Structure formats: C-alpha cells, structure tokens
C-alpha cells in the first residue's frame, strides 16, 4: 500500500543529495513518519545497498515534502487550528463592553465632564487636519483620515448597535482599539463602540462618513 501511496513521491526523488547517512538525520518526533517511509522505500530495489551504507550518491527529495504528503489531509485542519488560536489571542487582548464597564475603563473624572475644556483641542485638530490634507485629493481623503489622529475631531454617531447612542455628537477625546469616547455639548461623556457603528465628521468643506468596523484595525500609533 505504501508503494501505491507514494508512487508519485518517488518521481520527485531528484533534487537533493544526502550528505550523510539518512539514519543520522535529526528529525523531530512529528516528522518521524517521513523518515520511516523513506526507510521503507529504500529498503527495496537497487538503492537499498547504497542507502544502508549511507552513500552520498543517493538522491532524495526534501524529507519535509514527504512528510507534507503523508499529512496532506491534515493541512487544512492545522491551518484552521492556527487561525483559531490567533483569534483566541486577539479576543484575550480585546475586552468586551461589559468588561470595560466592570474595570472602569469607560470612566472619566467628573471634573472633565465639561465640553468647553476641550474646545481648544478641537481647534488644534482642525489646524492639524487642514495641514494634513492640504495636498490630498478627494480620492485619497478616506485613507488619509483612516490613519489620522482623530482626537479633537467633532464626530456625529449616525448608526450604532446601542440605540441610545445614535445621534450623539461631540468632540472625540479618547480613542481605544474598539471605542470612541465623546464629550457632548451638554457635558456628557459617552463611550461608543466602533464595531457596527457609523460616524460622520466634517473636514473643511467635506462631510466624511467613517465605518467603525474599518477603524478597529487602524494603526493606533499614528
């Protein structure tokens, strides 16, 4: 059965020279299957004697490729497993809305619940974004804003999975990977999740719509 399964692999035995006896190759436990198959294949036929003597003239394909053929049915499973592990690690780094509230990361000291305090911040942001977009055309505007610092921007929430936050308008004073912290003109500080939300802001003569899902993956160090 092994000869039938690896008949195609034998045709690949053409590219690499073994520089020392195959039995001396340092192979990890998960790759021992490849070594066993190679041993079985070369135990029969004209190459048997050369293999057992560790001849440098025996040509074999990379043993890792052989191992890949053996485990071909598990490649997709392995890739999926790694993807799930990465997703799990990301989930551990990102807290849910409930966790944010529990640990107080949505809190803002009461003395800062004052819209007027942040008006100068908004003025500085307008100067900043005007210079940033000075030589940017309309087609590059969205990408430029995606990487821009939005602290100080006047933002309107036009869509949100939390119905009570739709219509919130104010200066964005705190951003995390998953949220915007907005202080409104009535001195209320509200934290709006980016996910499934749509925001609007005005930049010079342009009204710009920002999809919150796109903002989650943006570079926070910009």
TrEMBL record:
Example GO biological process term? tRNA 5'-leader removal
Where is this chain's protein located in or outside the cell? Nucleus, Nucleolus
Q: Which InterPro entries match?
A: RNase_P/MRP_Rpp29-subunit, RNase_P/MRP_Rpp29_sf, Rof/RNase_P-like, Rpp29/RNP1
Q: What is its main location?
A: nucleus
| One GO CC annotation | ribonuclease P complex
Coiled-coil residues are none
Signal sequence segment = 1-21
Pfam family, any one: RNase_P-MRP_p29
Recorded GO molecular functions are:
ribonuclease P RNA binding
* Keywords linked to the UniProt accession: Nucleus, Signal, tRNA processing
Subunit-structure text? Component of nuclear RNase P and RNase MRP.
Question: What is the role of this chain?
Answer: Component of ribonuclease P, a ribonucleoprotein complex that generates mature tRNA molecules by cleaving their 5'-ends.
Give the family, as the similarity comment puts it.
Belongs to the eukaryotic/archaeal RNase P protein component 1 family.
Q: What is this protein called?
A: Ribonuclease P protein subunit p29
What is the protein's species of origin?
Answer: Solanum tuberosum (Potato)
């Amino acid at each position: 059965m092994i000869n039938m399964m690896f008949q195609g692999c034998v045709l690949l035995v053409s590219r690499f020279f073994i520089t020392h006896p195959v039995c001396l190759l340092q192979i990890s436990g998960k790759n021992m299957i490849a070594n066993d198959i190679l041993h079985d294949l070369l135990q029969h036929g004209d190459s048997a004697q050369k293999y057992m003597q560790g001849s440098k003239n025996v040509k074999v394909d990379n043993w890792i490729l052989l191992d890949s053929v053996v485990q071909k049915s598990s490649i997709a499973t392995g890739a999926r497993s790694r993807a799930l592990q990465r997703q799990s690690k990301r989930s551990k780094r990102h807290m849910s809305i409930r966790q944010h509230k529990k640990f107080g990361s949505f809190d803002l000291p009461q003395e800062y619940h004052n819209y007027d305090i942040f008006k100068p911040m908004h003025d500085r942001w307008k100067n900043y974004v005007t210079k940033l977009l000075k030589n940017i055309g309309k087609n590059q505007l969205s990408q430029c804003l995606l990487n821009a610092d939005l602290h100080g921007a006047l933002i309107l929430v036009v869509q949100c999975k939390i119905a009570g936050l739709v219509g919130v308008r104010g200066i964005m004073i705190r951003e995390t990977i998953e949220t915007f912290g907005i202080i409104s003109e009535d001195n209320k500080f509200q934290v709006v999740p980016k996910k499934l939300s749509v925001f609007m802001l005005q930049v010079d003569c342009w009204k710009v719509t920002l999809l919150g899902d796109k903002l989650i993956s943006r570079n926070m160090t910009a």
